[in-house]
Write a structure and sequence with these properties.
Blueprint (H helix, E strand, L loop, with lengths): L7 H37 L19
Length: about 60
């Protein structure tokens, strides 16, 4: 059986589809990596002196 040759329009459509798939893959990979990096930075960063709150002992009045 002879294989049917692809027409130019079909080949162009497949090429556009594969380019779109690659672009979508790269974008999704960037989103996932940025989320992972954000979680790592959030977990590792020591809070600055603005965020730290010194513990204040709660003193209840004596009866």
């Amino acid at each position: 059986m002879a294989r049917k040759q692809q027409t130019r329009s079909t080949a162009a459509a497949k090429r556009k589809r594969s380019i779109a798939r690659i672009v979508f893959y790269i974008l999704s990979l960037l989103i996932v990596l940025s989320m992972a990096i954000g979680f790592v930075i959030d977990a590792l960063v020591v809070p600055s002196h603005y965020e730290t709150v010194t513990p204040v002992p709660i003193v209840s009045p004596q009866p």
